[in-house]
Amino acid sequence: MNTSTIEPIPAFADNYIWLLTQGKRAAVVDPGDPAPVLDALRARHLQLAAILVTHHHGDHVGGVSALAAPGVPVYGPAGEDIPCRTHALVEGDAIDVLGTRFTVLDVPGHTRGHIAYYAAELDALFCGDTLFAAGCGRLFEGTPAQMLASLTKLAALPPATRVYCAHEYTLANLHFARAVEPDNAALAARSERCAALRARGTPTVPSTLAEERKTNPFLRGEVAAVRAAAERIDAGAAASPVATFAALRAWKNRFS
Length: 256
Ligand code: ZN
Ligand code: FE
Hints:
Elements: E1 5-11, E2 15-22, E3 25-29, H1 34-43, E4 47-52, H2 58-61, H3 64-67, E5 74-77, E6 87-89, E7 94-97, E8 100-106, E9 115-119, E10 124-128, E11 131-132, E12 135-136, H4 144-155, E13 162-165, H5 170-180, H6 185-199, E14 207-208, H7 209-215, H8 224-233, H9 241-254
């Protein structure tokens, strides 16, 4: 294990840019804004060694041009336009970041070319806007079937995997999750825990995949209570896993 720290740099209203360090070398994931990254690098005398991007949205790539420099690889999905990209990645590719091996997973749905980065030796998954704590990304470019397949792929990683997603959407996601599963005790406990964290201004992420499997409705379409809730909102939603997922995602879009 080489990377020694992983921590969030808050950006915009609710983004997290993940900062990885190894000694005085650093990497960032999805730097939507260069300013807080440059501040963090300067304050700690870190040298930027790599930039990782999960998808093309501005709140994830907006800082890339300002941070890119000769000798600093910019990793990004092969299927999308990423500024200054030096390495175009697809599923199965492996990269070395600060001495740690990261493998690439294709996770289309939020966008068509979205990728995720998984480091087995760190138990760490950087999944951008695909899997969120207690939720999932909106389907801007992909289909429900694609997104469900992507989430299922991520959920199959080891339970101890920490989920480093790119937004602090957890409380709103939990609010929706509780409407889907009012009788899920693990979910009620997670809501209380996360509300207390946010009241202190503490990030609720990373979570673990074990926690997501117990409380994230978008990973729980096979659970009878979740299927039944989807069916009550949208007749026919219980017919297939994709129909259940599509109904949940549409319900969440309307939910407030
Ligand atoms: Zn996005
Ligand atoms: Fe985003």
